[in-house]
Each structure stands twice: as C-alpha cells, then as structure tokens.
Design goal:
The complex is a heterotetramer, with 2 copies of chain A (382 residues) and 2 copies of chain C (365 residues). Chain A is built from 12 helices and 8 strands. Chain A is of the alpha+beta class and 382 residues long. In chain A, α8 (260-272) runs antiparallel to α11 and α9 (276-304) runs antiparallel to α10. With 365 residues, chain C is α+β, with helices and mostly antiparallel strands. In chain C, α1 (3-19) packs parallel to α4, α4 packs across α6 (193-229) and α6 runs parallel beside α8 (276-299). Chain C has helices at 3-19, 22-29, 35-44, 62-74, 81-92, 193-229, 241-269, 276-299, 310-320, 327-339, 346-351, and strands at 103-106, 112-117, 122-132, 139-146, 149-156, 161-163, 173-183, 187-190, 231-232, 235-236. Chain C has 3 domains: 3-100, Acyl-CoA dehydrogenase/oxidase, N-terminal domain (Butyryl-Coa Dehydrogenase, subunit A, domain 1), CATH 1.10.540.10; 105-191, Butyryl-CoA Dehydrogenase, subunit A, domain 2 (Beta Barrel); 195-351, Butyryl-CoA Dehydrogenase, subunit A, domain 3 (Up-down Bundle). In chain C, strands 1, 2, 3, 4, 5, 6, 7 and 8 form an 8-stranded mixed sheet that branches. The chains are: A alpha+beta (382), C alpha+beta (365). Chains in contact: A-C, A-D, B-C, B-D, C-D. Chains A and C meet through α10 and α11 of A and α8, α9 and α10 of C. Chains A, B: Residues 12-123 form the Acyl-CoA dehydrogenase/oxidase N-terminal domain.
Chain lengths: 382, 382, 365, 365
Amino acid sequence: MNKLKIPIMGFTEEQETFRNEVRQFIKSEKETFESQVDSWLSGYSPEFSQKLGKKGWIGMTWPKQYGGKERSSLERYIVIEELLAAGAPIAAHWFADRQTGPLFLKFGTDEQKEFFLPKIAEGTCYFSIGLSEPNAGSDLAAISTKAERTENGWVLNGMKIWTSGAHLSDYMIVLCRTSPKKPDRKHEGLSQLVVDLSSPGVTIRPIKYLTGEEHFNEVFFESVIIPEENIVGQEGNGWKQSMAELAYERSGPERILSTFPLLEELIGTLRENKDVQGMGESMKLLSQLYSLRHMSIGIAQLLEEGADVNTTAALVKDMGTKFEKNVAEVARLIIASHPSMTSDVRFEKLLAQSILHGPGFTLRGGTTEILRGIVTKGVVAE
Amino acid sequence: MNKLKIPIMGFTEEQETFRNEVRQFIKSEKETFESQVDSWLSGYSPEFSQKLGKKGWIGMTWPKQYGGKERSSLERYIVIEELLAAGAPIAAHWFADRQTGPLFLKFGTDEQKEFFLPKIAEGTCYFSIGLSEPNAGSDLAAISTKAERTENGWVLNGMKIWTSGAHLSDYMIVLCRTSPKKPDRKHEGLSQLVVDLSSPGVTIRPIKYLTGEEHFNEVFFESVIIPEENIVGQEGNGWKQSMAELAYERSGPERILSTFPLLEELIGTLRENKDVQGMGESMKLLSQLYSLRHMSIGIAQLLEEGADVNTTAALVKDMGTKFEKNVAEVARLIIASHPSMTSDVRFEKLLAQSILHGPGFTLRGGTTEILRGIVTKGVVAE
Amino acid sequence: MSDMQEIILDSTNKMFKSLCSKELIDQLEEGIFAEELWSVLVESGITSVGVPESLGGTGGDYNDALHILQLYGRFSVPLPLSETLMVQWLLADHRVPASREIFTLSVNLKNKIEIEETTKGYSIRGKAVHVPWARHAKSLLVLVNFEGASKVALLPLEQAGVEYNSNLAGEPSDTVNFESIDVENIFLEDVEEEKFRMKVTNLGGLIKTAMMSGAMEALLELSVLYSKEREQFGRPLHRLQAIQQHIAVLSGETVASVTIANKAIQAFGKGMVDHEIAAAKLKLSESAGKVTEIAHQLHGAIGVTHEHRLNQVTRRLWAWRDEFGNENYWADQLAEKVMSSNKESLWEMITDRPVTKVPLGEGIK
Amino acid sequence: MSDMQEIILDSTNKMFKSLCSKELIDQLEEGIFAEELWSVLVESGITSVGVPESLGGTGGDYNDALHILQLYGRFSVPLPLSETLMVQWLLADHRVPASREIFTLSVNLKNKIEIEETTKGYSIRGKAVHVPWARHAKSLLVLVNFEGASKVALLPLEQAGVEYNSNLAGEPSDTVNFESIDVENIFLEDVEEEKFRMKVTNLGGLIKTAMMSGAMEALLELSVLYSKEREQFGRPLHRLQAIQQHIAVLSGETVASVTIANKAIQAFGKGMVDHEIAAAKLKLSESAGKVTEIAHQLHGAIGVTHEHRLNQVTRRLWAWRDEFGNENYWADQLAEKVMSSNKESLWEMITDRPVTKVPLGEGIK
C-alpha cells in the first residue's frame, strides 16, 4: 500500500530553536487576544495579522522577491501549529496565506505575483474562496456563476455561498464558468477570477452560523466588471486548479488542532485538581493526537517532495476533524460543567465553542462521505 | 412516526410468579450445564431440551392438540429470556421452537402439524433452516437449489450453506426453486420443503467457525427424494413465507442477551471487588440493555396483536447485536485479563467466547447494511 | 395511554404546532419573551397540570404533565414551563395553592444564600448561579441558610439583581444576586438537604429526559423530511446507502431513547421508581451526542445556519444533556444502586419490578 | 530507513511470504510446531538480531528487529520469535552470548517461584502462569525469590511440568510448574524488581505494537482484496457506498496505527523514548477492536470461517491488544507522565523532543 506510506519526521535543532522563537512571540502577545477554539476561521484580527507579517511569518515559504522568506514548509508548519495551539486570531490572512498565495505562485502572472504577494505577506491583504453554490456543493461541475468576456474585461454574474470571511476580505478567488458546459467534459470551461469585493455589483450577505456568529456569506455578483488580467492561470483550467488546492488543504494542522485550546484547558484543570482518573480517561485523545500529528507532519514533508498525498491527506481530514469533535465530547464528560458562550469560566466557554462549532469541522473542505470515497478509490486503485 | 411507536409493557403478578418458577427450575439444573455465551446457537443438549419439553416450555404458545400449552407470547418471552440470561444449552430445539413450529401452524397441513408439532414440543425433534447459498446470501432470489416434481415425489438437487446446527438436526426446511425464475418476478417459484436429513443423497459437511467449533454447515442434496406432501404451505409462496419468518426472528431476546452471561459475571466481579469506578463504567451497558429489553418486550406484544413490526424489529436486531458485541469490549477494559477459551477463570472464558463469537452476532439474520436499509425504507415511507 | 390523556396531548400538540413558530423561538435569543404563548399556556391550565384541583391546580397526573413536556421538547417551546411546573409540584406537597406566576428554582451547590430575620420580616443576601429563566420569573425556589440550618425558601425576584447568561440553546441561565433585600414574608420550610437535592435532581432528570425524548423525535422528523426533499446526483438523499445508514442509526437511537423515557415516565406516574430515571437520563444524555452529530452530518451546510430550524433542536439537546446530571453522573448513581442492591444477580435486578415509592409526594422534607 | 535495513526487510518479507503459509499457521493449533521455519529463522540469524556480533549475535539494531517483528505480525508467523529476541536482548545486557535456543519469559505478578541453594546447586519450586510458548521453549526468564530477595533467573524447562493453555489466537500461553526441581547451575542476577518489570513491560509493549501494526496492514490488504474480488448486486463490493465507508475507516485506523508504531520504533531505536511506547500501545490496542470489527463486517460469513485467512489476523489482534498492557493500562501510564511532567503546558509536552534515555541497554538492574 505505497499510497498509504507516511515518513516519520523529526525536527532539527534549528527548527526547535525557531519553534521557541515563535512560542515566545505568542506568549508576549497573550494579553492582546483571547484564546479561542477554531481560531483560523473565527479569530479575525488585522492587527495580529500585521504583526505576524512583520515577523515574516505569512507567506514565509515564498520567494523573497515577493515578500516571502524562503523558509521550509516544516518551518511554516511550526508557525501554524504554534498559532493554532494557542488559539491565536489568524482568520484574517488565513486563506490568502494557505491557498491564494500558493495559487498565484503556481499559476499567476508576474504582475499578479508582484501586486498581491507582498501585500499578503505583510498581513494587509485578505482573500476568501468562492467555490460552493446553492446547487453546487459536492458537485462543482454544476457551478452556474459565469463570466463573459467583453471589451471592458470579464462581466461576472451569479452567486457564491458558504464563503468564509468574505465580509471581511478584500478579494475573492471566484470559480466560474467562462465557456458553456459540455455534457461529456463538464469540468472544463471553468476559470478562476480575482474579484475585488469592493467592486460595484458585489453584494455580500452574511449567513448566521447556528451560534448567531457571522463567519460565512452569500455573495452576489450582478454584472461585476473584472479586468481581463484578473484571470488566474489558464482559462478553462479552473476546476483542476481548485482541486489541487483542496487536496493541499486537507492535511494541515488546522484539521487536528481546532479544539486544542479546550484540550489544553482540560489537561491543565485535571493537573491542577490532581484528578488521576480524569487524566487517564483523557489519554486516548492524546494518543490520537500524537498519531494524527505525525501523519500530518509526514504528509507536509511528502508535499514538499511533490509526492501524491491525495489519499493520506483525505485520511487526515476525515480522522482529524472527528478528533476535534471528540475532544469536546470527552471533555464534557470528564469535567461536568455548564458550557456557555457567555460564561466567564474559561473551560465552559471553550467547551461551548467546541460543541457549537463541531458540526462545521466535518463539513468544510469535503464531507465525510466524499473524503471516504476519495480514500477508498485511492486504496482500491493500487 | 407511527411505525416506530412501541408500547411500554409490564408483567402481571401471575407472570412474575411464572418467571420465578422458570428461574427455580434453571437453578435446580445449574449443575448439569456450563453457562455459556451465545447458548442458543452453541449450547447443544438434547437432554436439556427434553427436560424443557417435559416442563411444557417448548412450543408453549401452540394449541394443546399439537402438544402446546396455549400460553401467551409474553410467557414464552419470559422462558426464553430466563434461559438465555442463564446461558442454558437450548440450541438443539431452538429453530424448531422459534421458527419451524410457527411455520407449520401457519401454513402446514393437518398431517404435518400432527406429525411434527408434538415431537418438537417434547424436545426430541430438531430442525435447521436452509436459506443461504454460496451465491444467494443477501439476495435470496438467486437461490439455485431446485426441486422437481416426479412420480415419486420431489427430487431435490443443490446445496445450502451457513445452516446452523444441520449436523445435529433431524430435518431441514429447505427453500428451493420449484418453477423456473422469471426476470420480472424473481421471488416467485420458490417453495419450502421439509427434508429428512437422514435421507439418501444428503451430505452434511460442517464448516469450522473461526474458533474451530462446528456450528454451521454446507449441506449438499444429490437427487434427494422427498415425499410430495413434504411441501410447506403453497407451492411458489416460499419466499414470502421465509421473509415473514425473518421479520419475526429479529426482535427476540436472543438479539440482546447472547453475551449476558459475561455481563452478569462482570457485574458480579465488580460487586465482589467493590470496584466503584469499574461499576460506573459498566452502567452505560445497563441503560442500553434496559432500553433494548423494553423495546423487545413491546414488540413481542405488537406481534401478538398482529401489528407490522418490520421496522422496529430490524432496529432491535441492529442495535441489540451491536450491544452484545459491546459488552465484550467494555468488559475487557474494565477488568484486564487473559481471555482464553481454555481458561479455568470464568470471566476469561466468557470473555473469550464473547469476543470470538462477536463477528457472528451482526451477520446472522441479515447484515447491518441490510437491516438499515429496511429501517430507512420503513421510516421514509411514512 | 388513557383516552383522556390522548385528548389532552392531542390538543397540546395542536396548540404548540400552531403557536410555536420558528420565529417565536428565535425571538428568545433576541431577548423577547413569548408573552402571548405563555398566557395561552396559563389560560389552558398547562402551567399547573399535576397540581391537584383542590389546590386550584389543573389536576391531571405527572404522567400527563411529562408527556406534555415531551411535546414541549419536540416543539422547542421557548418558555419556563418545566421550571414552573416543578416548583408548583414541590409547593403543592406543602399545600401551597397553584399560581399563574412564573417560577424557577436552583439547587446548585455553589449557591450561598443567607436569610436573616429582621424586625420587619426577613433579609436575603447571597447569590444563585445558573438559574434558568430568572430574568422572567417572579420567584425562586432555593436552598438557604437560616439561623444556621438549611431550609428551602421561595424568594421573590423583583428586587434581586439578575446577570444575564444563557445555556448552549440560548435559554436564560442567569446569576441572581440578593444584596440584602428586605421582604415581609416568605415561604420558608425545614428540609433534609440531601434528600431534597436528590428529589429535585431526580425530578429534574426525569423532566429533561421527557423533553429530550421529544426533541429527538423532532430531530428524526426533520432529518427524514430533509432526506426526502433534498436530491444529490439526481436521487433523493435517502436512496444513498450512506444516508440510509445515518437514518437507521438516528431512528434506532431515537426509538431506544423514547422507549426508556416512556418507561421512566410510566414508572414515575405509578409512584414506583427504582433505577428508571437514572437509566433513562443516562441513555438520553448519551444518545443526544450521537443523534445531533448524525442529524448535522445529514443536513450538511444548511443545517448549521441559524436560519434552519435544526439548530433549535440540536442546541437544546446539547444543553439539556448536561442539565440535571450528565451521563456520568447518572452512571454513578446507577452504579451505587447496583452495588448496594440486595439482589443476588444482575438479572434479578433487571427483571425486578420496582417497588420503591418515589419520594415526591411526601412533602418537601 | 537505511539501504541495509531495506535489504534485510525485503528478504525477510520474501522469506515469510514463501514459507509461512495459511496451513502452517493452522498447524500451530493442531499442536504442530513449525520446526522447519524456525530452523530457517535461526540459520538466517533473525533470532538474534539486535544482539551484538561480539556476543555471537547477528548484530543490527533494535530498529531492524522491530521492523522484522512488524513483518512477523503481518504474516502471523506461528513461532516464538519475539519472546526469544526479548530474552536474548535482556541477557545480552549481561554479556550472555547469543544462543540458537528458544527462550520465553514471564513477569506476571501472580508468579511465585522460589529458588534455594542446595549442596548440588539449586532447587526450583513454584509456578508461572500465562507463559508464552513454554511447551516449546528451552528456558524461561522470570523473577524469582532467592534468599528473601528478588532476582531474575533463567530457568531450564526440561523437567518442568507444563499445562497447555492458549490465547485467543491459539498461541501457546502455558502454565509452568516447577516441583522442586534440582539444577546444577542457573543464570541468577540481582534486579530492581519494579524497574525490571517496567523495562520488560515497555519492551513487550513496543514489540506487540510493532506486531499489531503489521497485522493491521495485513487486515487492510485482505479487506481491499476482498472488496475488489467479491461482487454484490452485480458490482464489485468497493463500489458500494457503505463498503467505501468501511474501507476508508479501516485505512485511517491502519495508517494512524502504523505511523504511531513507527514513531515509537524510531524513538526507541535512537534510545530516546518518553511517552512514545505508551501512546503507541494505547492507540494500537484501541484501534484493534475497530479494525477487526470492520474487517469482519466487510468479509461477511466467509470471514468467520476457520478456513479463511482473516481469522488468523483478527484473532492475533484480539489476543495481542491485551498482552503487555491493554489501552487502559497504558492510558494510566501516560496520565502519570502528564501529571508529573515539569512542562508548563500540554502543548510543550507534545512538542518536546524526548530525551529520556531508554533503560534498556543498562543491563538487567
């Protein structure tokens, strides 16, 4: 089962030193933010993003000429997991750093790279991703948002839904149809456009999450004029480009650590209370976390080497997001409490966040069923 | 959701008295058998069956003219659950009592009833059920065993597989094709025949279970001559008759209590050891057992009233057999031990039986997937 | 179920169905109390079901009331019905007449409320936490210290300070502050503290069990409906094998939960409860996590929006499973019963018909 | 993985594949010892991998040996390889030369073995339970009492009484009886009892972890193969959505288990182990229940027959998960480490690079 092989990675002495540097920075910032669950989606703080930009920790693997620091992806991994473990507010620049930057690097024009990448790396330019539509969730071929080429550039009409953070972003990468659908080649004819969200004709309507918070949106495009040069990559190649992004985003630490602040609080409380029994009951979580983390790190290495991680990345997402949910289920049983978003007891608040955000963990980035289909196809194909 | 409604039943004073009588009898027999897991399939003892026959507890709901006692199905329920809870050896007469007797009562000729039922009720005449074939497991329409009508009676050719206890039974109810399959009516043309397993042309080859024990068999029929009058019910109606049997057998206490002897031993040991923590950890099993038992009893009542229990019975089988497995998984964690079929420590032996028999629980009588399909169809249809 | 009960439940069902809309439930979280629906409940007599007619109550028995609360759970009614009923029942044991007011109660161990006798009456000082619906209630039933002894008291809330807080469902769960408040007269009675706590916990556990079983029925209905209406790859969802697995497990957990809840309600109604409440609240709290997860998985993105009715049900299940004892609490209670049982075997315990009289009805002692 | 290791593992893989047939494994339960294969293992040097060449061993490191044991688990090899290796390693710490014999060991708390000095040598009296492969082994490494002190001894088994018993997989797990047996000389050394127990438990836990991870790989392979070969309703099984769910979960548990096992092996190989063994054996023991259930569910009736290879793998997983500590045992060990850690936060513990030197290699103390 070669597709399932994952190398065991260790960090070097220098990387450990770097980790310490990151950790010290976060500690020094502790007073400026409230640690929270799911902070890569809910923790919006342009100030904090800019501080990270100053440290050189956004777009840090990118070429220096575009504001990057040309560091290794394992170093980036260290930064991300330290921030997530601390529940730091990193939602503002998240998608730009994780997805849009790499997209420009791979497919963008020189002009796009020169214009966008330095701003992203500064922590001042935020992107969101426009994929889903009401009738195109799991099946992106059904996308009906379309852009027509005119003399003034593209004219975009349609809508996107479930776009995280669009109401707080500057731009959106919109996957849309640029030539008519052919029955036998339904994934062709889609392209990715960079849309300035302040353009006339763009309407953003937040959708309330079940907590009442506003994380995602419906975004409407009514004859939005987009400069011709805002297409990313090849016209008609948008589906393939988007799929590559999706695979890339499945095995990161954000699929494992979303509820880590709760786990940290749980273990801390148990240590304080010297609750040996409760600690024993928590340890299954810990062993799961160990194995998921080593899987995730090993895959990060494989990605760097350019290996095919489609199958294993889907596994991490499937198991990791279940683990994130499970943290809440175990925690609530070990320490009985009154979970509440408005509680001033830290454990109760983090627990409430974890329970209420839970359903989202296994939905975003591909549902359980779809991930499992991907895994089985990969495993059976060998 | 009317199909999911289950009445809450209680037992009357007389029924409780009767339960006590059954319990006293089992206690008085304790020295004659070794309590075991899954005793309705593995506990073969003609002596014990005959004793039960003498007590009037086989075929006890049947008319007196056929050796029955005309007692209520809740009284039968009491007998069965007391026997199962004690792990008593009741495999010999099990299928005859549960399935074949009711089949004859419903569809049999007077001659069949007069011939077979009194013997079954005496505990001296044992049946097994011939349904599955190598290529007809979940899909009984694919049955290829066939009987041809000749001057001498039916001539049976083919084979059955996974037949429990055939090597220890006197007869088998064989579902076979008596007229050719029509593409649009593939469940027609099947009939049920009573086959004397000592007939020439019958070969029984035990299949070893993973423990090495012999519970089920392959049974081959080579031109076996079967008297014309051995057909049960209507010619061509065999599939419907068999399906009705299957639904009937899904919600009985044998879908909940197969591993009860282990649970009893677990709780007993924890009480003895005053292990409060272990006891707490076992209690989820107990609450599951309570709810399953009340479901099962309620459905027994509905069956008596002639209500449609197809959906709820499938639920009991699905959840009950999972519960039976779960008993072993919980028990092994609460009391660490060396489970072994050859151990002389009772807990270890019962645990080994439960673990090793476990995979069978969810396979027999319809796999998980099939049961869940039945449930969903039932629920969605309302 | 008696014919009478069927009629009562049928009309309650209709009433909730027509009056308790999704929007009304949402309004709770916007701080708007459903005055109108509350008036209807009061007028219909539902707020004093189980209080004898001789005390001005509606009559009927606990069985009726608990099945009404099952419907309450099914429709996510945004009102302090269970709290008001509980307090009225506990007061009725003391021959206190039925009332049309809103009551609430708290037996939290962290509460420290002191009552002192003054020249004009009593002075109340202290704090009660996690008090459901306190901001809307007239009075609070609570354990207090009075002259060094534990008592149970019914305290007026008009002058109390109330800090707003809410549970996972957005139901009020407030902190109440009495800053040396003077009152002329209050209900104040002796109480055996531990026994009273157990009584309230049992009653509360059973009530939440009833409510949760109703909520699970709603969850199953919503899910089945969605699987029939929604299509994927050109087929209704329920035709997909993975969805069938979900619906079947959801059905199973729901039926098992409703069955054990009904068993506990029936036993309580007959005044014969042994392990039933513990086993039922344990099972319901445990199942709540499973059914909510499945229902959300099945509903996909639409299900996690505030817009969709689903979250009103799942958030209540998440809140209620931890209220009046989570599954571990009740597992420990049940374990204690098994440990100290005088029966020889587990099987005898399971098949034993409960004979322990429920303490409720003996008056608050 | 070094090139050298790759070559060793590749040839071991080939050897097991060609010599360790389903029938050979079955013969174990019929009481037939796989003499021939054992000779091949001895000749190839596998039975003393990890024992330095200076002591007559094959050389190589623990890392090599543990990956060989992974293959052992994958092919369900019916031989006392892990026991022999463990004893040889423990003896090598005492500079005892490598041997071609079969060894076994027991650190069971229930053992009570007394050694007395006699005029001719020593007298052994007592009983050891759950001793793997005792019926086939030459000597037993075990804790004994000698002149009132705990020692570790290597006892000859020729004259000992052996009661046959077996674990869930049908592997020998015998009771050994020494009825005042006289021997001239034995290996007998001082030992810190608790430390020795911990060392053997850690080593045993890691070895079982390696074996189980190999068994899980076999389970996944068998299941995938079956899902490709077998058809239902005219389509290969793996096209059915419910089966896809099974295969995906099976793959996930297997990869997670293999990863954490490899991490523990690597850490141990470097002589730097902190929580790795505990976390790994915990995870593997926990996953064993899940993967065996899924594999059986997927295989249906054919999978529960003695005839099918599946049961050789699942029964070993069921047996091994409880040997050298089940998941609760290791959870408690891990909990203790977390409790007594000098790190401030859990995150610091998780990201800490282990520096604790593994006690193995210090000699049996």
